[in-house]
C-alpha cells in the first residue's frame, strides 16, 4: 500500500468511498432524509473543488492493485491559531481495522508538522464512538462541543485536538 496526493482521476473513487461510508457510519445518527440526498456526483464535486483550493488537500491510500482503499483530507482550522483540520478520513469497509486509517492520520499529522502548523484538529459527530476511540487512542484530546451543520442538517459534534505534532514525526 502507498499513500499519495489525490489527483483528478481519483475523485470518482473517493466520492464513492465517502458517500458509502457516510450512509453506513451515520445511519441512526443523522436523519435518513439527509443521507438519502447524498450522491456520488455531489461528493465528486465536493472533492474535485477541494483539491483545487489553496491550503487544502487529500491523500489517498492505494493498494497493490492500484485501487483507492481510503483517503484523508485536510484544510486550515481557523478557530484555533496555527491549526490544521483533519477534515475527513474514510476507509473502505473491507479493509477497516487494518491500520490504513492510522497511516493516513499520521500522513496528515506529518504534513501539518512539515508545513509549520502547531496543532491538528478533527471534528467528529457525536455517536461515532468508534472514530472518537481511534482518535483519542492516538493522543487527541477533547477541545469543545458544538453544533455542526451539514447542508442544513444540524449535528451534535465535538472537536478533538492533538497539541503536540511531534508524535506524528517521531514514529
From TrEMBL:
Highest taxon in the source lineage: Bacteria
Keyword set includes Acyltransferase: yes
GO molecular function, one term: acyltransferase activity, transferring groups other than amino-acyl groups
One of the Pfam families matching this protein, by short name: Acetyltransf_1
Gene3D superfamilies per record: 3.40.630.30
Range of residues in the leader sequence: none
InterPro entries, per database record: Acyl_CoA_acyltransferase (IPR016181), Bact_Acetyltransf (IPR050832), GNAT_dom (IPR000182)
Segments forming domain N-acetyltransferase: 1-166
Entry keywords, A to Z: Acyltransferase, Transferase
Name of the molecule in the record: GCN5-like N-acetyltransferase
Amino acid at each position: 500500500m502507498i499513500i499519495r496526493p489525490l489527483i483528478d482521476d481519483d475523485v470518482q473513487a473517493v466520492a464513492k468511498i465517502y458517500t458509502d461510508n457516510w450512509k453506513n457510519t451515520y445511519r441512526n445518527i443523522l436523519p435518513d432524509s439527509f443521507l438519502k440526498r447524498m450522491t456520488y456526483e455531489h461528493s465528486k464535486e465536493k472533492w474535485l473543488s477541494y483539491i483545487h483550493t489553496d491550503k487544502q488537500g487529500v491523500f489517498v491510500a492505494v493498494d497493490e492493485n492500484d485501487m483507492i482503499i481510503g483517503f484523508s483530507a485536510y484544510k486550515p482550522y481557523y478557530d484555533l491559531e496555527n491549526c490544521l483540520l483533519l477534515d475527513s478520513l474514510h476507509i473502505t469497509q473491507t479493509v477497516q481495522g487494518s491500520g490504513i486509517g492510522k497511516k493516513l492520520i499520521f500522513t496528515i499529522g506529518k504534513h501539518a508538522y512539515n508545513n509549520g502548523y502547531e496543532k491538528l484538529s478533527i471534528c467528529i459527530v457525536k455517536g461515532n464512538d468508534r472514530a472518537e476511540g481511534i482518535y483519542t487512542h492516538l493522543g487527541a484530546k477533547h477541545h469543545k462541543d458544538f453544533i455542526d451543520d451539514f447542508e442544513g442538517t444540524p449535528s451534535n459534534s465535538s472537536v478533538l485536538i492533538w497539541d503536540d505534532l511531534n508524535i506524528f514525526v517521531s514514529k
